[in-house]
Amino acid sequence: MQKPFRLSVLIAALGLAATSLTSVAHAQNIRIAMVIPTTGALTQYGDMVKEGASTAVEMVNAAGGIQGKKIELVPVDDACEPKQGPVAANRVVNAKIGYVIGPVCSGAAIAAAPIYNNEGVVVVTPSATSPALTDGKKFHYIFRTIGRDDQQGPSAAKFIIEKAKPKKVAVVHDKQSYGQGIATSVRDALKKAGIDVVLFEGINAGDSDYSAVITKLKSNGVDFVYYGGYHPEMGLLLRQAGEQGLKVRMMGPEGVGNPEVNAIAGNAVEGMLVTLPADFAANPKNAAVVKAFQDKKRNPSGAFQLTAYAAVQVLLDSIKAVGDSPAKVADHLHKNSFETALGTVGWNAQGDLKAFDFQVFEWHKDGSKTAAAK
C-alpha cells in the first residue's frame, strides 16, 4: 500500500496549442492530459473531472511538486464522442504526454483505449463505467477509479426490487455504449428477480420530443421507469412525462446526476432516483480535501470530483515511487493498493477496481440530493 499525498492550492490550465505543448520550459514538468468534454452537451461532466483533478494537482504543487517538478494538467477535448476519442488520443500521443485523467464518457474511452495502450500511455478514468472498456482487452495501461456498470446496475436493481417494489417496469436507454450497457444490466437483474419488465426501448440521444416512447409507457401501464443514459434526455423524459400526465417514478445512473437536469426537467425532477458513487465528501478523513475544494468554490460531492481527485492521487503516488516512466507507473498500479479520497483502492488484472460503493440518492428540484429511503 502506498502512502497518499496529502494533497492544498494552483493549476496551470494549459491549452493544447502546439507552442505550449513543445515549450522547453514544460520539459521540466510532469504533464498529465485531462481528456474531457469541453464542447458538446456533456461539458458539465468534464467540469466535474476538472475540479477534482485540478484540486489534487494544486495541492501537490503547493507542497513543492514531485522531486522538484511541478505537475501540469493539459486539457484535451473529446466532446464525449466516440469518433473524437481516437483524435484526442493521437493528440496526447503526439504531444508525448504519458498520463491521462479520463476519458470521461465510456464511448469515447472505448474508442481511444487501444491507442493509449499500444502507445504506452497510462489512463485512469474517473467516470467511464462500461464493462466493454476493459472486458477481454488485456490492456496493461488502462485503469478506473470508478466502478463498472455491472456493479452499478445491480445496486439500482436491488433498490427497485426491495424499496420501490413496482408492478410493471419499463427500461429505456439511449442506444449508446454506456446507456444501453447499464440499462441491460438493470433489466437482467430485474428479470432474474421476477420483476415484470414490460418494455425495453431505445431512444435517440439529442432528440427533442419523446412523446412516442411516453405513449408506449402509458399504454403498457408502467409504474416505474429506469433510464440508461445522460441528463439531457432524462430531463426531457421527466418533463414531457409530466406534461402528458404520466406520473411514474424514474431512475437513472450517475450520468443523469447533474444539476443541469433541473434546468431541463423543471419541477418534474423532484424525486428522481439516481445511483451515484458514495458521498466520499462526507467521510471525516477527507476534511482537508473538502476544505481545499470549498476554498476554490468547487463542489466535492458531485458524481466525479473525488473519483478524479483519486485518479490524480494514484498516478502521482506511483510517479513518486518509481519515477516519471509510464511503463513503470502502470506496473506499479497493477501491483499495489493505494490510500485515496475513495478509501483503499486496488485493481484486478484488467484495470478494474476490486470493489466500489454505488448508492441510491433522491434528487430534488433545488439541485440537492439525499439518500433514498424508498
Automatic annotation (TrEMBL):
Superkingdom of origin: Bacteria
Domain Leucine-binding protein: 30-367
Residues of the signal peptide: 1-27
Keywords annotated in UniProt: Amino-acid transport, Signal, Transport
Pfam families: Peripla_BP_6 (PF13458)
InterPro entries cross-referenced by the UniProt entry: Leu-bd (IPR028081), Leu_Ile_Val-bd (IPR000709), Peripla_BP_I (IPR028082)
One Gene Ontology term from the biological process aspect of the record: amino acid transport
Similarity field: Belongs to the leucine-binding protein family.
Protein name (record): Branched-chain amino acid ABC transporter substrate-binding protein
